[in-house]
User: Fold this.
Amino acid sequence: MNAASAPTLRVATYNVHGCVGMDRQRSEGRIAQVIAESCVDLIGLQELDLNRRRSGGVDQSARIAGELGWHHYFHPTMQSGDEHYGDAILSRFPLTLHRAGELPAPAPFYCREKRGAISMDVETPLGRVRIVNTHFGLGWRERRQQAGLLASDGWLGQSPPGSPLILLGDFNSLPGSRPYLALTQRLRDARRLVQPIRFGRTFPTFFPILAVDHIFVSVGLRPLSLDVHRSPLARVASDHYPLIVELERASQTQPRG
Assistant:
């Protein structure tokens, strides 16, 4: 098989802001439409509700996945009675849970929100791929500790070297920051591997100036392109734009010359 016909995988990360858009309207259907128009195969979502009164008791990840006809897995990072809040992975392909848990760290007084991560194995056209979705905190000490936990043998270190691994999410961290650099000790920032290098600014949608959403990949995967999906619908649906990368298996890349 030559490089031109090699299978690819389109992967995205998207902070959906509880499905509440810039018009202050909540719409799971609108988020599903943004995902559909972005033509991705696999996506990590942050800031989702399950059975919360503020969201009409809706299971947001299930509703979005249902509209797409996809598989999904939701992991709550915060719970109060029957109300849950957290992150999810949605996929065209079957998902198998590898690990889901909290990333404990001292949160700042102005945001006591607990944070976590989900690790899933996905059977894709590239073979089995492991994907990890997370949402870091707002405090700088908190983010540094969370990055250290994710980069440890308990999380990213459990994948064999060279195996296809994707880490994505809203890291609330800029490129070059200490949490970002801790993660690049394990994985590579996809935006740095495409030509020309893309900044991937995703927040806020009304004037995107910050690159806080990231996609990191192992040496087993090669990014072909990286884009921010800035459609008119995406501009309204959330306060973040989706960040998308198209990948192929590194072993399928043919040498030049």
Notes: The longest strand covers residues 71-80. The helical segments are 28-38, 60-68, 140-151, 178-183, 232-237.
